[in-house]
């Protein structure tokens, strides 16, 4: 190898290491990604090849490290290093690696790896993976993450490793509520990482992070088979990754079947590949450590990214919350077994980075077989016209540049633009509101951008656009008909749900029940017209009453309510409590799981119908605390004991106060 070539190769290695490490630091700390997974993999593969050819390997090369240390929190060393798996995109390599042994196939979930330690039947510690040797202690979030038990039957020392993930459904709902584009998350993994760095356990719990165990790292008692170990974790109450046993003969077919699940969008959890490991854990542990992975610990399979070239037809501008985002619409191409004709371009900065022109050819992939993504542009000419008007409301637009990331985004200047109030539309169609299936946040935003929806009542007039909706991408006859049926079904609505759906500040289900119980729906409307207020109603008070009056003083809200009443029928109900009911004069606090009632809401509804009250905290006015775990050391149990409040189980409640 010539000297000048060696220098060039070394310089390129240094460039790649710097770029990859910079990207990883942002990636592992929940920041905005600066390169896509596709680009990262390509650069990583290039670095591997250069290191093999030259023998020039930098100490901080990502090929030698297992992750990146988080910036926040207390650091602790791992009891067992969290090594990376060897990676491949070739099924033939996996078959060769499997040899003649039994192997297990499972998902490679795309979240944040956590390590859980148990002793004497209790969860003692949660560490993030960090750099594989040292992680961040986030044990304070143990009550905020689903998927693992706090107490287990096994009394020995146990270490479990798994992935904390946020589903696509939850990701889309959470991201749609973030009005500032600079604060939006790039993908579920990015959101999970950012969430687990929060200090507020309550906010973490709201985001529904779920832990999926993927390996039992250590157990005091012998248990050799990996499958047996996973079954053991499942019996102990862990959410465990899906898995299937295979061998070298059946592995290719299994991989094909699992890959189809991703292509067909059957997975709501984010995955970026598959994992295979030996069933014989003793054999797996006998391998050597090469670079940053153990040779027999397992293999990560990542799908080959298949790209296609297509001619750009136009850029569509879609308004969501305060941001107007560009979407490339191109001539349909076949990718991963489906027809693709659209891909998000994210923001103005990404358009500039790619070099999008008015006329150009796009190279498109489906990232992780799911999300269409433009990765490069060829033969670009002309400039894309950035709209001066919002596609939803027609107001002027303006370009914002983030101080933090210098990202350029387009915004609508109208504070009353309906796309900025998508949270209200989400509440309107929710189960507690009008209960309309098939109207996700994304669907409503699409309808807003098409001009179908600008007010609540417009939802009940969507049948006007049924023929256009049928041919929209992601719909079709069946989904369109199902949505129309759900809309028609929701026209008959309970008055409490209707009041909740109106999105009156400070007025939820409980306040709605109190209003309807006192004056009925007709009385509610009369009080609105007469601006009499509701502060005389027990549990409403002047602040909530004032909020309702102020809401109705807004002309837009009055108009919206009148239009809605033309489209729906309010059910006649009697919510007045039974003054001679079994719970009359009693105040209950309900905590923990329930089994006689469907859920705590149904339990609460029974108590109120029987003349009682349900509150959220134990005070001297509490009559009974209902908790099926009477010996729990929870704060509510402790408070009840301090105040001498009786603690009863649900069965005891049913026996004494049930119908």
List descriptors.
6 domains, 7-stranded antiparallel β-sheet, 26 strands, OB fold (Dihydrolipoamide Acetyltransferase, E2P), D-amino Acid Aminotransferase, Chain A, domain 1, alpha+beta, globular
Number of domains: 6
CATH architecture group name of the largest domain: 2-Layer Sandwich
How far apart the termini lie comes to 88 Å
Q: What's the count of strands?
A: 26
What overall form do the CA principal axes indicate?
globular
Helix content: 25-40%
**Mean pLDDT figure:** 85
What topology emerges from the helices and strands here?
Layout (H helix, E strand, L loop, with lengths): L2 H26 L8 H18 L20 E3 L8 E3 L2 H8 L4 E7 L2 E8 L2 E7 L5 E3 L21 E8 L2 H9 L11 H8 L5 H6 L3 E10 L6 H10 L7 E4 L4 H13 L7 E8 L2 H5 L3 E2 L2 E2 L4 E3 L6 E13 L2 E13 L2 E7 L3 H7 L4 E9 L3 E11 L15 E5 L6 E5 L9 H8 L11 H10 L15 H5 L6 H13 L2 E2 L1 H7 L7 H22 L10 H13 L1 H11 L3 E2 L16 E5 L8 H10 L3 E3 L8 E4 L7 H9 L3 E2 L1 H8 L2
Parallel strand pairs: 2-13, 21-22, 23-24, 23-25, 25-26
Antiparallel strand pairs: 1-6, 3-9, 3-10, 4-5, 4-7, 7-8, 10-13, 11-12, 14-15, 14-17, 15-16, 15-20, 17-18, 19-20
Helix pairs in contact: 1-2, 15-16
């Amino acid at each position: 190898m010539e000297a000048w070539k060696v220098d060039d190769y070394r310089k390129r290695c240094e460039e790649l290491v710097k770029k990859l490490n910079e990207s990883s630091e942002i990636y592992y700390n929940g920041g905005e990604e600066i390169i896509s997974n596709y680009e990262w993999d390509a650069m990583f593969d290039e670095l591997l090849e250069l290191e093999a050819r030259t023998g020039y390997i930098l100490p901080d090369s990502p090929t030698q490290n297992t992750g990146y240390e988080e910036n926040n929190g207390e650091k602790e060393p791992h009891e067992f290093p969290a090594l990376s798996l060897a990676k491949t995109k070739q099924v033939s390599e996996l078959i060769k690696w499997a040899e003649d042994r039994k192997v297990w196939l499972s998902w490679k979930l795309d979240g944040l790896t956590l390590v859980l330690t148990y002793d004497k039947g209790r969860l003692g510690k949660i560490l993030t993976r960090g750099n594989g040797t040292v992680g961040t202690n986030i044990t304070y979030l143990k009550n905020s993450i689903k998927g693992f038990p706090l107490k287990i039957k096994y009394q020995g020392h146990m270490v479990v490793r798994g992935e904390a993930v946020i589903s696509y459904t939850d990701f889309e709902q959470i991201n749609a509520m973030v009005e500032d584009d600079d604060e939006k998350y790039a993908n579920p993994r990015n959101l999970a990482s950012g969430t687990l760095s929060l200090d507020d356990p309550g906010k973490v719990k709201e985001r529904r992070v779920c832990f999926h165990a993927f390996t039992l790292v250590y157990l005091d008692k012998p248990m050799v088979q990996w499958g047996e170990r996973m079954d053991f974790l499942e019996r102990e109450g862990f959410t465990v990754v899906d898995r299937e046993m295979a061998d070298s003969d059946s592995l290719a077919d299994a991989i094909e079947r699992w890959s189809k699940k991703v292509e067909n969008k059957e997975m709501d959890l984010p995955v970026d590949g598959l994992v295979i490991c030996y069933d014989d854990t003793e054999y797996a542990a006998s391998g050597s450590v090469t670079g940053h992975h153990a040779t027999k610990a397992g293999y990560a399979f990542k799908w080959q990214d298949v790209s296609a070239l297509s001619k750009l037809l136009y850029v569509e501008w879609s308004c969501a919350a305060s941001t107007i985002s560009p979407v490339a619409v191109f001539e349909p191409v076949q990718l991963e077994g489906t027809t693709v004709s659209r891909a998000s371009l994210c923001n103005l900065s990404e358009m500039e980075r790619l070099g999008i022109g008015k006329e150009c050819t796009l190279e498109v992939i489906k990232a992780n077989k799911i999300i269409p993504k433009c990765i490069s542009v060829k033969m670009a000419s002309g400039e894309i016209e950035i709209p001066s008007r919002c596609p939803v409301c027609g107001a002027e637009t303006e370009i914002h540049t983030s101080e933090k990331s210098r990202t350029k985004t387009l915004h609508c200047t109208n504070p009353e633009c309906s796309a900025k109030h998508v949270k209200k539309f989400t509440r309107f169609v929710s189960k507690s509101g009008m209960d309309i299936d098939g109207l996700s946040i994304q669907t409503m935003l699409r309808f807003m951008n098409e001009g179908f929806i600008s007010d609540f009542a417009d939802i009940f007039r969507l049948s006007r656009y049924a023929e256009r909706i049928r041919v929209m991408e992601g719909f079709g006859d069946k989904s369109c008909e199902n949505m129309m049926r759900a809309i028609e079904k929701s026209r008959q609505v309970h008055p409490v749900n209707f009041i909740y759906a109106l999105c009156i500040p400070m007025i939820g289900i409980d306040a709605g029940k109190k209003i309807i119980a006192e004056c009925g729906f007709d009385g509610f409307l009369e009080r609105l017209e007469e601006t009499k207020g509701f502060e005389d109603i027990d549990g409403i008070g002047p602040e909530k009453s004032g909020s309702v009056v102020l809401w109705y003083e807004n002309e837009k809200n009055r108009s919206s309510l009148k239009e809605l009443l033309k489209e729906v029928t309010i059910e006649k109900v009697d919510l007045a409590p039974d003054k001679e009911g079994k719970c009359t004069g009693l105040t209950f606090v309900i905590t923990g799981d329930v089994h006689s009632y469907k859920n705590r809401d149904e339990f609460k509804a029974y108590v109120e119908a029987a003349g009682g009250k349900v509150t959220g905290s134990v005070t001297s006015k509490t009559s009974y605390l209902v908790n099926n775990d009477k010996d729990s050391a929870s704060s509510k149990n402790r408070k009840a004991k301090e105040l001498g409040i009786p603690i009863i189980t649900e069965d005891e409640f049913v026996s004494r106060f049930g119908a």
